[in-house]
Design a protein that fits this description.
Layout (H helix, E strand, L loop, with lengths): L13 E5 L2 H11 L3 E8 L4 E8 L2 E7 L18 E5 L2 H10 L8 E2 L6 E6 L5 E6 L1
Parallel strand pairs: 1-4, 5-8
Antiparallel strand pairs: 2-3, 3-4, 6-7, 7-8
């Protein structure tokens, strides 16, 4: 099927507001392996903005002074989690564990037969590893 010029082509980025910018930057860059594309401090907002990329995925990581917490558990309405494609869930779980990041037990998706697990970023944002 041919795409029209106004069609959505895919996701460009996901924006995340961190309560501790340096901790979250370390998590996404040093633990998960995202690459910093650009990083800017916006003095007028007392806020950092860091553009991160891995594969085709991009995250905008922000800091804002006194940002209110967002409910993510129990299953709240809205964005449920972010899922990352991996070749080997077990290997990535071991990598996370070596950085002190706990994950749930690895499970099998009953509909696709693929392995997956959940873990959280420093602010408790639910993240998923999904084996492709």
């Amino acid at each position: 099927m041919e795409q029209a010029s106004g069609d959505i082509l895919g996701f460009h980025h996901v924006a995340i507001i961190a309560s501790d910018y340096q901790l979250s930057r370390h998590f996404y860059v040093d633990v998960l392996g995202f690459v910093v594309i650009a990083e800017n401090f916006r003095a007028e907002r007392n806020s950092w903005k860091c553009d991160l990329k891995i594969g085709d995925a991009q995250i905008e990581l922000f800091s804002f002074p006194e940002a209110p917490p967002r409910v993510s558990r129990p299953e709240a309405c809205g964005l449920r989690h972010l899922a990352f494609r991996v070749q080997d869930v077990a290997a990535k779980v071991e990598h996370l564990k070596s950085h002190g990041v706990a994950s749930e037990p690895v499970r099998t998706d009953p509909y696709t037969g693929r392995l997956f697990t959940f873990f959280s970023d420093p602010d408790g944002l639910p993240l998923e590893l999904y084996q492709v």
